[in-house]
Amino acid sequence: MRTLRFLLRKEYLQIFRDRLMVAQLLILPCIQLLILANAATFEVKRAQLVVVDDDRSAASRGLLERFRASGRFELVRPPVSAGAADEAMLRRVAGVILHVPPDFERELVRAHSAPVQLVLDAEDGAAAGVTLGYAQRIVADYASELGATLPRSAARRAPAAALDVRTRGWYNPGLDYRLYMVPGILVELVTIVATLATALSIVREKELGTLEQLNVTPVTRGQFIAAKLIPLWSLGLAALAVGLIVARLAFGVSIRGSVVLVFATASVYLLAALGIGLLVSTIVETQQQAMFVTFFIVLVYLLMSGLFTPVRSMPRWAQWMTQANPMMHYMVIMRAVMIRGAGVREIAQPLAALAALALAVFSLSVLRYAKRSA
Amino acid sequence: MSARATPPRRGAQRTLGAFVRKELHHIVRDRQTLAILLVMPLVQVLLFGYALRTDIHDLRVAIVDPSPDARSVRLRDRLEGTPRFRVVRTATTALALEDLFRRGEADVAVVLPARFGESLGRGEPTEVLLVADASDPNTGTIMQAYVRAALAGFEADVTPQAGGPVRIRVESRMRFNPTLESANLFVPGLIALVLTLVSALMTAISLSREKERGTLEVLLVSPLRPWQIIAGKVLPYLGLGFAITCLVLLAARLAFRVPLRGSALLLLAESVLFTIVSLSLGVLVAARTESQRAAMLGALVGTLMPTALLSGMIFPIASMPGWLQPVTFIVPARWFVVIARGIMLKGTGLAYLWRETLVLTGMAAILLVAATRSFHARLD
Amino acid sequence: MTASAARAEPAIEVRGLTRRFGAFTAVDDISFDVAAGEVFGFLGANGAGKTTAIRMLIGLLAPTAGTARVAGFDVATQAEQVKRHIGYMSQRFSLYEDLTVRENITLYGGIYGLSDDAIAARTRDLATRLELERELDERVGRLPLGWKQKLAFSVAVLHDPRVVFLDEPTGGVDPMTRRQFWERIYVAAAEGTTVFVTTHHMDEAEYCDRVSIMVDGRIAALGTPAELRARFGVGTMDDVFVRLARPGAAA
Lengths: 374, 380, 251
Fold this sequence. Notes:
The complex is a heterotrimer of chains A (374), B (380) and C (251). Chain A is α/β, with parallel strands linked by helices and 374 residues long. In chain A, 67% of the residues lie in helices and 9% in strands. The radius of gyration of chain A is 28 Å and the shape is elongated. Chain C has 251 residues and is α/β, with parallel strands linked by helices. In chain C, helix 4 (101-111) crosses helix 5 and helix 9 crosses helix 10. Chain C is globular, with a radius of gyration of 18 Å.
């Protein structure tokens, strides 16, 4: 115990004396949150629209007006020919082409139904899908508006819709993407800080030769690992705290559930993150390798965690794989607690899975570390 | 000795050759790093091609039906029969909804009013509440649209045929990527990411390591000039980046039929241009940092993060807030991603991409000069 | 303490110690004793197996065959006991450069179980002897190399180990500092610490009570410097070494 105290003191001294480490702790969360929370969104604010109006009627002009008034589309130039529109898309001036065919108005009056064509530049697929959604809504709204004003061929008025569907989006009524992204980014942040710092801190002692020095002292492996991991464990929690404060101040994103629960689950998750760092340190010799290996592992974990794409959209086999990913479980927990205000009871299942995984990863890496250097 | 006998220029070239060979040895000897550099892009291509999708194929619906009757059961059947929908709970009160959502066991709830069937039978407009878990706003919106469509279908079934409302049919076409394959979208960006990783990060770390170990000083007293030292460091990584680009393109082609509609030669040439920009950035980072770890952090924050986040490779630049969009102009990868997507997906050539190419060329020129200078200054 | 009993037996007792890496035999059946309080020089060309042998003696590497007892404990079965009673200074400077002199001393004092008072006393003592009073709260990384090495040695014997292993302790320092360094070694030996030292400097071999010379994993010669010089009929240890380590060069 006494030995551990001295070792811990050394680790903390080294951490706080290391300006890089402090920078990593304070600056990385800020930059990441500010950029990632703002950049990592598939929400499309304004799409560049070019119109090909082959009808040139009141109805087509009305549709155009609705697009312009929606605020979601920016008419980059007055209506053009189909060829010019095509060229505009290739030059990336236009992201969307709205093509109103000839006889649009006449068809509407005659059959109450007419087509329009939307061409979207899908090289940015996510954006294209969202833009299409906006466009469809504008067109649908315009159509129902027309239903009331259009001269009718039949005397009968269309009956009011039988169902009056009201929609409500729980937990995020303003549909703020940042609210959704922030918990996920915090998870990623804690992982990087803990995993990379662990791997680098041990490998650096390997490179410098101080590890060998410690190995010939009576310091046991258990003491060494504990002295390395306890400070980094607290560092991970500190990074989380910094991240939460930044999220609160910069985006007004706060924790709906219990703060204690957020930190308690983080403590469990950190076991896994630290364990992975420890594992990396046993398979590499240099800091450069440590960084590349860590980077690779974290990246795969991240992609398979549901941060960017929903886990439930993955094929079955991939979903099964994510079950073994502690980051996925922690992502689920963080989102549930922070966004939906879930309590222990509601997150019991993912928490149990996370605890089991964290324990497994941690003990595996500690065992491997001890064996490896024996 | 022989260097003294040969004319100075040829001697310098020969030393440069030896230096490049030494650097190549470093790369090839470190099997682990090399393996990761080769395997990482392949794993990413596979993940993005197979695992990472955004379409929703399993939508969990909860139904609250306080007074079940023939009509409400018909609505329930309708929802249950809709592909992608899975009814996870049917209850008579809305009490359990909150719990269900918090546990994350339902995505959408359809809440019918009391005496739903009666009201509908009288032909009155009947209010239906559609609650979606909008934690993820995009998914939430899409799910709402699916349920709305199903309800509209039900509506058409139960209401007698009338004159029919005005309909404008939207025929949409996703150009250049009709099925929105994520592999298609991602591969151009992945090339940028990998090139940044190989060139900027590797160069920064390997240069700063030589600085830390003092081997750089040995090179300095050799007849090599600063630009030759940089060239010697940089050339092997240029080759490595080139090889990995080809590997990624080949894998994407074979596994996912990612198209390469434009000129492969042009794409490779642009890749080399982009690599030069990244390498110069790596040299700059190494020149300005004192230790390997500082160089790592610098390269991470200065090159890799902007490439991943601000290049438009994953997140559309159009979606970023106004103040952030101009920031992307100084990210080289932003221009390269436009070029790579243009060539691969649209089949466009220099006629359309000259502006982006010009920007990259300008960046390459400025950064190369800055890198050589900063390096020179450090050494004096 | 069982000091008197321990003094009676050799500080290091090696019998048939062997280490193989696959088909390669790095250390091939070596045997020797080192008496308590002796300064023992362990010489050999690069790759002769010195480092492998040392690593087995300090418990970093398990022997393939044979036994070795250090400070009375078996290195294979009682490695933890061995570690309590030895000090080690590797050829790479291995104090923490980002900690101060005082913090390094405190750390190693704590690791070896010295009391807080003892640590404080040792720190004062060391500072006076090494003339480091003003640098006590200076980071070790800022000290000149010679001082670093003296400090590293002092830290290695901080806990009065029975045996201290020095792996090329004087690499890269000037002759003046080397001389001062050896004075410190003699002081430690006079206080009863056994010193096991490897070196490349043959003039340093002359300072040792006895030396062994390793060639290809075996001990080719063992004795006092005077005995060895006489046996090979040469004037300096340098010549002894060249005779043994590079027979071709001598012929």
